[in-house]
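Project channel, design review

CF: Before we commit to the Ogataea philodendri constructs, I'd like one complete example in the thread so the newer folks can see what an input/output pair looks like. Taking F-box domain-containing protein.
RD: sounds good, go ahead.
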Amino acid sequence: MLASLPNELVLEICDGLSQADCFHLMLCSRSLYKCGLRRLYRSIIVDSSDICLEQCFEDYYGTRDLCGSKVRSTRVRTSYGTKQLVRTLSETEHCLLVERIEIKQEVELPMARCLFKMINLKCADIPNAGFLSNLDLRSLTTNRLKKFNRTTKELRLTKYSPIDLAQMPALEKLCVSGMISSSLKPIRASLSSIFHSNGTRIQLKEFGLESAIIHPEEVMSLKTNFDFSQLRVLRLADIVEYPCSSQGLALQDLCEFDLNRWISHMAQSTECVPEKSFLMQIAPDLVNLQSLDLDVSNCIYDYGAELISTISYLQTLRVKISPTHCSAQTLDKMTEKYFESIGLHKGLQHLCINTKQPVKLESVRTHLVGLNQLKSLQLCISLNDMVELADIIADLNIEYLDIRSPSCLVGQSLYENLHDIFTNKSLKYLRLKDKIYDIENGRIAGPKLDECFEHMLINA
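CF: and here is what came back for F-box domain-containing protein:
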């Protein structure tokens, strides 16, 4: 009966099957074998580690994005399995079926030769992409980039690598790192050393910048290179913003100056020009922003709350509040300011607030209870406030809750009573310290759960 269906329908059925079920289906007939083969080789994950996940997170780990559509991936989890995969791809034409590949280990020469034969490859997540020249490649994640593909629309660099924007005119999503590895210690690169352009201006839908130093003089060049008017997602992680000061350093001296001495130098400075802040300069262009990941340090003044207030509509917000050289009283005022700006976004669905100290529940009660569309929440609170927090969020439709606490030990009695404390029917999963709980069935065990849960917090 199934074999009599058109191949398009059988392929769609195979795409919804797990890896094991697809194997079993392929044994039924030749036509089903061919359809199952496409499912198994379309998207491949090579991690050479035995990852055992509960069913609730299995779908997340094996599901990947392929040019805008979600597909299930075949996982190769052992070194023997990797050798067999390389042998099969080398001796057959199965490499023509591969459209997405993700490799979590250093690529050796035999696998590199297989990658060269994957002429239909559209998405790749590999350590070294210097040898990739696939014409149809649309999305690339790598740490070393030697060649540029003019058709690439999505690029993520996990290590520092200068980019010539003129060679990538089709780029829509870009995430780069400014962390330079050296023999002594990692150092942050300045923004101007990452991007190079000959007048090319790219309109981005998603932009991410990690571990970089930003000088006020560089902001204009950033706005010249990129058009942020259609930007939907902005990620700024581990960014040190150089505040404008009369005692400040020149741009050309920024990379050579010791970062710790520089922070101490700026903390003693009292003169600052707020309107020249990096965040406030790009704020007017973020008219279509829906997702914001904010971790920017400024030694004199924190502009994060002001930025959040100026954005008209946010669905996802992840913010880290960790000012340096700040008194406890000033930190409390700053945190309250953040909560006030967050409370303006009634359409928020995913909210992660990362603080070193527990937040005051009065701020949570005042500003977050009106966020009726909230599905996931991350907060740092005292364990003594657990019951009160549960009461505050009882009427919200939160499905994923992540509670961070500075307390070193969590009593076993608290774990045993989690189901009774959190009575709201919508809550599915709760992470407390290093343990993740299915509220109905108890603790979930297994490696890689933290990575999966982090994804759920912003994509539930």
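RD: helpful, thanks. The chain has 16 helices and 26 strands.
CF: The first helix runs from residue 7 to 15.
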